Amino acid sequence: MRTAMRSLVVAGFLAPTLLALSIAGCATGGGTSTGNSATTSDGVDTNVNTPPGAAIASAHSLSTQAGIDIINQGGNAFDAAVAVSAALSVVEPISSGIGGGGFFLLHDASSGRDIFVDARETAPESATPAEYLDKKGELDRDRAMNGPWSAGIPGLPAALVHVAERYGRLPLSTSLAPAIRIAHEGFPIYPRLEKGYASRREVMERYRGTREVFLVDGKALKSGQILKQPDLARTLELLGEQGHAGFYQGQVADQLLAAVAEEGGRWTAGELAGYRIREREPITFDYRGWKVVTAPPPSSGGVALAEMLQMLQPWKLGRLDPAERTHLIVESMRRAYRDRTIYLGDPDFVEMPIAMLTDPAYAAGLRATIHPDKATPSALLSGEPAPMEDDETTHFSIIDTDGNIVSATQTVNLLYGSGMIAPGTGVLLNNEMDDFALKPGTPNAFGVMGFDANAVAPGKRMLSSMTPTYIESADKIAVLGAPGGSRIITEVLIGILGYDAGMSAQQVAAEPRIHHQWMPDVISAEPGALDATTVKALKRMGHTVNAGEDTWGNLQTVAWDKRSDVLSGGTDPRNPVGEAKVVLDQP
Ligand code: DON
Q: Is the C or the N end of the chain the one with fewer CB within 10 Å?
């Protein structure tokens, strides 16, 4: 660390001192800031091996600010991550929360270690495959997606405790304080929350606990009205005071167990008290001079990224015409998602050929099967059209002045998770059980399916697509991730390709997206991602193209350019309430 972070009030888009810069949900502008360090004639700063300050990008300005406040109180990136994560639980209940789970990819600059904190939910002991089938033996989608049976044992509270205690500098209660304050004081409902609530209303209002939080005088809150969550504030306070036991044992645990039982589910005190995060080795590989550090199973993201990027490695993508480029990227996506379906699951339960799947030689073999101008049909198993993705789940990216990094994606799965808040706790339970292959070969809400590797079993973690990642080259570090269900992995892929092509953090967040997931055998494209000529050329190659989809995703990224010593952030313009901020050390 070069100097102590000054206690700096960061207010608004242009801070008067220009020591703080932010991008708030906009596509253009310069969320960048540089330290005034001396440079040599070729622009390389020989004295600089840590960033000139800190940068945070998250999906809400209040959560970004919560992290900045903690940095300004002397916290490191890990303390800030606890603050951002908890604040997102309060201000973005549609996406994630302490009733859900997540993955935290950490880089600890003092030891040089990369650590993957797996706070994925686990299946309750009651969750046998038969519980998710209806009388005809079909997948019971209501059970899989709504209410107590859709919820796994939450993992996020355990991650907050672990990250604070093992890697932070500040007490957990200090890092949770901003979230607790926002939960008490309330925050204005924004259109995405209102719209999402309307679409999940029938389910959410089945549950007493949810009605108590989201209805005022029997009416759902509208944009601009203030949502206060005193019960959630109290639950966070107990977590801060008592750590793991504050959530997984005692009063909160009793309330969770009672709520699940009241709605016909079955959780046990033992499985709640026994929930533990896992620290895992991240997946790392090289791509064109970048070291990519990313998510291992039970995320499918890192394996798929390794396959896709290593397949793409030899091609000079920037020099190809858009149709050729898209074709090759799509073919790499198709092959990686096929392997996701067949091989991947919870490493504590299944043997997976990870070394094979991430081997450059394996990618070379797959690359050899790609025809230069013909689509490979995916038709191996029938698929269902994937529904439109909403942008639940949330990602945040942090880098601090010591060079610590946090890339974290957290979720309750679909819009407002299971819809069910446990009365008295403010805790909205996830519906992550739908990420299991509850019925082998039957697509889930994201149109992805699975077989034995991702079959449900008590205590098992469901396969995820969440792909918190950072990449490092001789010149740059970039931290990125996104929500989007099965589309997360391809969002991160496109982001990495964007950084490799020299884009800024904000350009990476704004890039138009395409996606292919093997099944269904179709290229999805955001408006503007593929022009008419490219679509025509792709169709001639045999691809099915759906170029008329709505936008998706909510990518949050920060970057540090080591040569120019510039810190920058990019927030997805598709989400107007997100914000990326940079604060510089005091000179
Ligand atoms: O872990 C997963 O892959 C999913 N539960 C993530 C869900 C998600 O991103 C929802 N957003 N569209």
A: C
- Atom number, ligand 1, closest to the C-alpha of residue 552: 12
pLDDT at residue number 377? 83
Give the tens place of pLDDT for each residue, 235-294: 999 999 999 999 999 999 999 999 999 999 999 999 999 999 999 999 999 999 999 999
Pocket test for ligand 1, best of 341, 346, 411 (most atoms within 8 A of CB): 411
Look up residue 333 and give its two tokens. 């996506």
3-state class (DSSP) for residue 427: strand
Q: Which pLDDT tens digit goes with each residue over 294-312?
A: 999 999 999 999 999 999 9
> 585: Cβ below 6 Å to ligand 1?
no
Question: 542 falls in which pLDDT band (50, 70, 90)?
Answer: very high
Residues with catalytic function:
393
Residue 41's identity, in one-letter code, is: S
Please calculate the CA angle 15-16-19 and round it to the nearest 5 degrees: 60
Q: State the pairing for strand pair 187-188/579-584.
A: unpaired
Query: What is the position in ligand 1's atom list of the atom closest to the CA of 462?
Result: 1
Indicate if ligand 1 lies below 6 Å from the C-beta of 483.
yes
DSSP readout, 463-505? PB----EEEE-SSEEEEEE---GGGHHHHHHHHHHHHHTT--H
Residue 235 CA to residue 319 CA, distance in Å, equals 54
Is 299 near ligand 1, meaning CB less than 6 Å away? Answer: no
- Intra-chain end-to-end CA distance of the chain, in Å: 13
Is 523:546 a contact under the CB 8 Å cutoff? Answer: yes
Gap between the Cα atoms of 125 and 136, Å rounded: 24
Torsion of CA 111, 115, 117, 123, to 10 degrees: -140
Which residue puts its alpha carbon closest to atom 6 of ligand 1?
Answer: 485
**Is 302's C-beta closer than 6 angstroms to any atom of ligand 1?**
no
Bridge-partner residues for 579, per DSSP? 58
CB 422 within 8 A of CB 405: no
Rounded Cα–Cα distance for residues 81 and 384 (Å): 37
